[in-house]
Every structure is written in C-alpha cells, then in structure tokens.
Design goal:
Elements lengths: L3 E4 L4 H12 L5 E4 L10 H6 L8 E4 L2 E4 L1 H11 L10 H18 L5 H9 L4 H26 L11 H15 L8 H11 L2 H6 L11
Parallel strand pairs: 1-2
Antiparallel strand pairs: 1-3, 3-4
C-alpha cells in the first residue's frame, strides 16, 4: 500500500493525520501544500485531491481521502493495531466526542480561511486574535474535565487515542494564538506527555520538510 499525504506543515488538520500515520507505523510520502501561497487553490489540486481547497488529502492505491477525522477512522479500520479507539462502546464514544470538540467545534472557527474572512469583514488583528482565543477557551473548557476524568497520561487512558491525535495539534495552535493554558492543567499535561512520544514528535510542524523556521 502506497500512501502520500498532501499537507501544510503548520495546519492542525494534517498534523492530526501525521500523528495517526506515525502511530500506525506507516511510511508515507509527503507533499507540501503552501496555504499562504494559495497552492490549495491550484486547479490540479482542487480537481484531483481536495474539492474544498483544504489540507489534508491522503492518496492511497488510486483513492484520495479527505477530512482528517475520516482519514483517522480509515486508518483505524484498515490498520487496527495499535488501536486508536478503546474496545468499550461507551469509551469509544467518549474518545470520538473529545476528538470532535477539537475538530468540529474549535478548529473550524479558527482556521486560515475564517481568519481571512474576518479580515475582509473589517476585523483588525487584535479582534481576530480575540476571536480565536474565545473559541479555543470555550472548547477547552468543555474538554478539560473530560481529560481530567478519563486521562491517565494521555487524553483518554494510558495510551494514545484519536483524542490525542486532535488534542496535541490544537494545543500547538492555542500556543500560537497566545492562549493561557493555566486553567487547563489536564489538557496541558496530556499534550506534553503525548509530545514526548516518538510518533507525536515526528509529526510536529517544525520537523516537516516544508517547515519555515523564523
């Protein structure tokens, strides 16, 4: 099975997928898509890889998969070990809920196209930062007690799950947006612990081939 990930180094959605691929121990090719230069709008990319003009896109054996959660679920179904979901149905639902808080409720309000739209509507830089911080804090406020209750090193239990694949990139984003993580000690601890895992470390934005270092 050949795998090629179309990714932007700093974007959190492909960051999730990189973590998942690494946790599954899968080798994959990497194609950088520079969102700042608008490469996601190129006709070839849109028609062949992602109709939403977004990353990630994962090419495999003649198929192209999009949407990070769908890709992670596909990885879980096609490469079940090591598992990213618990065996108990209620626990699986909890992990999926934790992942969804990040991927469905926090991130969509803070990604680059929303930032650009806010700018077009006349919101200044300070206002855009406040907007981003508001929704990250809102989501983390719901997620914190879940991690505190269920986490045993990682976000849920003592091994990486789908929740960690989403949480770690979102904490990275929160730090970029200067969110104070002091009110979220369980989240901060889980992200720090996961960050020491080789699969997470290798997926970090700064270690990607298209990374831009200041």
């Amino acid at each position: 099975m050949s795998l090629t990930l179309h990714s932007y180094w700093r974007a959190t959605a492909p960051y999730r997928v990189r973590i998942g691929l690494n946790l599954k121990g899968l080798d994959y090719g990497y194609v950088g898509v520079n969102l700042l230069k608008g490469e996601q709008h190129a006709a070839d990319y849109v028609t062949k890889r992602n109709r939403q003009h977004l990353t990630p896109a994962l090419e495999t054996d003649g198929h192209v998969l999009v949407q990070s959660l769908a890709i992670l679920e596909w990885l879980e179904e096609t490469h079940p070990q090591p598992a990213l979901l618990p065996t108990d149905a209620f626990d699986r639902a909890t992990v999926r809920a934790m992942a969804a808080i990040v991927a469905c409720d926090i991130h969509p309000l803070n990604n680059m196209r929303i930032q650009k739209a806010l700018e077009q509507f006349g919101v200044d830089e300070a206002g855009r930062l406040e907007w981003s911080q508001r929704w990250i804090v809102d989501g983390f406020s719901a997620l914190e007690p879940m991690v505190a209750r269920h986490g045993k090193g990682f976000a849920f239990g003592d091994a990486p799950t789908l929740a960690d694949c989403c949480l770690v990139p979102q904490v990275y984003s929160a730090q970029r947006y200067k969110v104070d993580l002091t009110p979220f000690p369980a989240i901060a601890a889980a992200a720090a612990h996961a960050g020491e895992h080789p699969a997470f470390a290798a997926a970090h934005p700064d270690r990607q081939p298209d990374a831009v270092h200041a």
